[in-house]
Amino acid sequence: MIAFEKLFEEKIKSVEGVDDPAHDLLHFRRVVATAKVLCEREGGRFEVVIPAAWLHDLVIIPKNDPLRAQASRLSGEAAVAFLREVGYPEEHFADIAHAVEAHSFSANIECRTLEARIVQDADRLDGLGAIGIARCFATAGLLKRSFYSANDPFCTERAPDDREFTIDHFYAKLFKTADTLKTASGRTEGLRRVTVMKQYLQDLSSEIQ
Q: Among 172, 149, 148, which Cα is nearest to 160's?
């Protein structure tokens, strides 16, 4: 697997979002590292989880692109084509493709295997906690969104609008992400990361109000 992982990383280096810190090589490395931990704890198949985690965003489509919902399907197809090219065992292709396709929020595909749940959790955990905060603001910078609403920064009396305000994304999606985690290990880590984010909002509140 070590030799294959070197090939996977080299492939990601060729397609990573060089202008998008939220989806750079470091994102893939974090997702793989988290997936390995969850796989060990949950008893998953590393031969499915590791390639799926490395290749989960092989085809990157911007969040504001109308084709965004197709990204995971395209990534699954591209992953299988690449794995066939490098001689990875074909008996794992279907489960790897499914894990890649099911990881996405926008695709809304039900996870049919433990390995798909692990990869999905690993990717979603990277949107939470301290790194999730950093990624959220990085994406907001690319999309030129304001940090927060001057009148109601923490959505106390209004519905979140994360098309306009970055902090609103915490309430519109990120906090809800913890409720979607599929594995016991993922949910435990998700709760820890949500606590980090809520503390950040408390600290932010003391500085802007």
A: 172
- Residues 103, 154, single domain; the answer is no
Within a domain: 66: yes
Q: Which of 16, 69, 41 has its CA nearest to residue 181?
A: 41
> From CA 28, how far away is CA 175, in angstroms rounded?
22
Q: pTM value?
A: 0.91
- 48-95 pLDDT, tens per residue? 999 999 999 888 766 666 666 677 778 888 999 999 999 999 999 999
If asked whether residues 99 and 132 sit together in one domain, one would say no
For CA atoms 177, 199, 150, 137, give the dihedral sign.
negative
Side-chain half-sphere CA neighbours of 80 within 13 A = 17
CA quadruple 124, 127, 130, 131: dihedral, nearest 10: 100
- Pair 107, 141 in one domain: no
Q: Distance between CA 168 and CA 111 in Å, rounded?
A: 28
Of the chain, the end-to-end C-alpha distance in Å amounts to 52
User: Is there a single domain that holds both residue 107 and residue 150?
Assistant: no
Q: Which domain holds residue 170?
A: 127-209
